[in-house]
Each structure stands twice: as C-alpha cells, then as structure tokens.
Specification:
Keywords: Signal. This is DUF1735 domain-containing protein. The protein folds into two domains: about 140 residues, Sandwich (Immunoglobulin-like), CATH 2.60.40; about 120 residues, Beta Barrel (Lipocalin), CATH 2.40.128. About 10% of the residues lie in helices and about 45% in strands. It contains two helices and 22 strands. Strands 13, 14, 15, 16, 17, 18, 19, 20, 21 and 22 form a ten-stranded antiparallel β-sheet that branches. Strand 15 and strand 16 form a beta hairpin. The longest helix is centred in the N-terminal third of the chain and has 26 residues. The chain is elongated and about 75 Å long. The protein starts with a helix and ends with a strand.
C-alpha cells in the first residue's frame, strides 16, 4: 500500500512539473518582444574603428570635390514583426557623446563637423512593412579644414514607434576628405647614409615598404621615408610631397627639417596616368650625406 501511495505521489509531482514547464515555455512569446530603432551598418559596410565611452565610432573618407558628396547612413527597426505603419525617426547630434570621446582620447581632440560643410534631414521615415531607411548626408568636402579631425556624432532623438536603442541610439562618424594623391603606395628606392655599415643604406627591402600618403592639403600628402632595412628615419618628421596640379612637378619638404629639399638634377614629378611618384631629395650636409630616390606606385585607397 505504501509503495502504491509513493508511486501516486511521484506521478502527481511529475505531472505538476511538466505543467509548470509547459506554462513557462508558453510565456516566452516572441511576438511580445519590444521594437527597437537604432543606427545600422549591416548594408553600408562600415566596420568599427573603435568603441569609446560606450559609443561606436566609424570612419569615412571622401575625395575632395567642388560638387556635393553623398554620405549614406542608415537606421533600422528591429522587432518580432515588421512595422504595420510608417515609423518616423527624428535625428540630431549627440555633442555629449563627442565630449566623452574627446575626454577618453585626451590630449587628441576631434571637433564636430561644422554645419557649413554638410546638410542632413532632421528626420527619416521607415515605411510600413520595411525595416530600414536610408539617410543621405551631403558633404561639401572642398570646404573641409584638412587640419581638423572631424566627427559627426549622429543621434536618434525619438521615434514614433518602438524604443530608441540603448546601444546604437548614437554613433560617431569620423569624416575626412582626401585629395587625388591620397592612398597606399608601393615604395621602391635607394637610400644614402654616409658611412653606414649597418644596413641602413641601400635599396629598400622588398615587401615591407608600402607607404600611406595622407592628405594634408588640396595638393599635398604626408610621406614617411624608410631606411633600406625598413626602419624609420629620425630628423625628417613632417616630410611632405606637394604637387603642382598644372605641371605635375613635385616639391619635397619637411616641417621639422628645412634642409630637406629636392635633388636639383632629378625630375621630381607625379605621373597621373600611372598614379606614380618619382622623387629624389636630400637632407643633412648634402646629397652624399643623407638622401633618398624613390618610386611610389599607387596600390589602392587607405
């Protein structure tokens, strides 16, 4: 009798547990998930440059142009079902996010992209039955101050349906302008260092000498010369390549060393057809003391 009673009680307990589990499963209803609106990069191809103070930063660079350049960004609606009516998403700038970013990167400072160099709508509509909407920011890259590090701190201020994403309600976009010479170049050349016996003088090492030429002005780019073994060269910081856009002749200079200059007997030039620089320059006590003769061939954008 005790055995039968024990089995009966066991059966009741198992049935009760099954009932509870069934109830809990039924209560997990995906259709009840709240809708969230946030910035999206799933189709724009942006990769995070960094995440600082809880804000994700992306980076965009555009060619300098006298016509407006379109910068495409996107907002998305996430939820268990598509919106049944249009969703209005209001947009603005998050200056507090930029302030937090600068505080985390002190002493380097970025400034907000000036309103004089771009236009963007104050809102966008995600259509009923859709999950995404595009926003076109129109940039006047020819008005950019190339000495400034610009950030556009985009913020979703409100939405007519759902909640603003706590993680992607604000995104930071570093926005820069590039001239036609900006990019990654293969470096092939010969470097002179008088009296060297340690491998600094000679032909640059193949395969390790790709260089980034970075926009400094409408017709100038920064350049970092290497020794033959791939090591950096001290004393010529701020080396700059400046192109005359009419003649394609090149002038070499260095902000830290006024002695750096073109080798007069060499035709320093840029070939736009092949996107190749031919440069020869010296510093120190003359061409026999410290000098370099390089060919820089364009590989692609940086």
């Amino acid at each position: 009798m005790k055995k039968v009673l024990g089995l009966s009680l066991m059966s009741v307990l198992m049935l009760s547990l099954a009932s509870c589990l069934k109830d809990k499963t039924a209560n997990i209803d995906p259709s009840g998930s709240p809708a969230v609106v946030g910035w999206s990069t799933s189709t724009t191809g942006d990769q995070p440059a960094d995440v600082t103070a809880g804000f994700t930063r992306y980076s965009r660079s555009y060619n300098i142009s006298t016509t407006e350049t379109e910068m495409l960004v996107q907002v998305s609606y996430s939820g268990s079902s598509l919106p049944t009516s249009d969703v209005t998403v209001n947009l603005g700038l998050d200056l507090d996010a930029l302030k937090a970013y600068n505080a985390a990167h002190s002493p380097q400072t970025s400034v907000v992209l000036p309103s004089t160099v771009y236009t963007m709508p104050s809102s966008v509509v995600i259509k009923a039955g859709q999950r995404k909407a595009d926003i076109v920011v129109k940039l006047k890259t020819n008005l950019f101050d190339l000495q400034q590090a610009y950030i556009l701190p985009l913020k979703i201020t409100s939405t007519s349906a759902g909640a603003v994403s706590s993680n992607y309600g604000t995104v930071l976009y570093s926005v820069g302008a590039k001239n036609q010479y900006d990019g990654v170049y293969a470096l092939k050349g010969y470097v002179v260092r008088q009296g060297d016996t340690g491998g600094l003088m000679g032909y640059t090492v193949k395969g390790i000498a790709n260089r980034e030429l970075i926009t400094l002005g409408p017709n100038s780019v920064s350049f970092t010369q290497l020794w033959a073994n791939g090591g950096g060269i001290a004393g010529i910081d701020g080396t700059t390549i400046t192109v005359n856009p009419t003649t394609n002749k090149v002038t070499m200079s260095a902000s830290s060393n006024p002695a750096l200059k073109n080798l007069e007997s060499y035709d320093n030039r840029y070939d736009p057809a092949t996107k190749t620089f031919y440069i020869s320059f010296y510093w120190g006590n003359g061409p026999a003391h410290r000098a370099a003769t390089d060919t820089l061939t364009y590989i692609g954008p940086r």
